[in-house]
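Researcher: Quick test of sequence recovery. Tokens follow.
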């Protein structure tokens, strides 16, 4: 195997090991702590340039292996198979080109799978941490909500009592105005009756004086 394909094979083994560690059912707390530590350390972001170069290098090898496989297949289909040695060499060449294509193709595909799996796991772990923080702060918020609800209920009760007292005061004010009006009417009636009584008294006294004069 050529040196660069040996390097690609080593990269494929590393990717398989890394992917196995991400999907293997380790204790969730340990896995989350390790992956979050790796993400927060910035190792991947600092080495992103090198990772892109390696990925581009593997992609070039994949394109080259595909071209070699196509040429080897055409040679096998068009060659004269009378010589067994020629037939064996062509099939070996085709086999190596297919092997290199599968090797580079699986390496590229697995790198994409690892990248996407890592992103999904990090989103999941950060969401779980946020949910745990919200769960810890929920009792305090619940107490605050309960306090405000009780305060609102108390205020509503006080408002209802004040409205009731206001209605009572309005009713008493109406009753007072009614009594005041009745008292005014009674006073006017009393004054009228007093005037009539005085007039009658004066009339009777006048008649009595006339009777005495006649006698």
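Model:
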């Amino acid at each position: 195997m050529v040196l660069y394909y040996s390097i690609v094979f080593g990269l494929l083994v590393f990717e398989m090991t890394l992917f196995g560690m991400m999907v293997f059912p380790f204790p969730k707390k340990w896995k989350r702590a390790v992956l979050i530590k790796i993400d927060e350390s910035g190792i991947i972001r600092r080495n992103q340039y090198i990772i892109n170069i390696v990925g581009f290098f593997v992609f070039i090898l994949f394109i080259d292996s595909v071209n070699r496989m196509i040429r080897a297949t055409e040679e096998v289909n068009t060659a004269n198979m009378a010589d067994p040695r020629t037939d064996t060499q062509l099939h070996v060449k085709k086999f190596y080109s297919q092997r290199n294509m599968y090797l580079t193709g699986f390496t590229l595909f697995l790198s994409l799978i690892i990248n996407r799996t890592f992103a999904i796991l990090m989103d999941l772990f950060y969401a779980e941490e946020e949910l745990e923080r919200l769960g810890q702060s929920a009792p305090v918020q619940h107490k605050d909500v309960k306090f405000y609800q009780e305060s609102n209920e108390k205020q509503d009760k006080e408002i209802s009592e004040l409205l009731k007292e206001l209605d009572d005061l309005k009713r008493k004010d109406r009753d007072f105005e009614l009594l005041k009006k009745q008292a005014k009417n009674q006073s006017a009636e009393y004054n009228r009756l007093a005037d009539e009584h005085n007039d009658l008294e004066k009339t009777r006294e006048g008649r009595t004086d006339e009777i005495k004069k006649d006698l």
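The first helix runs from residue 3 to 23.
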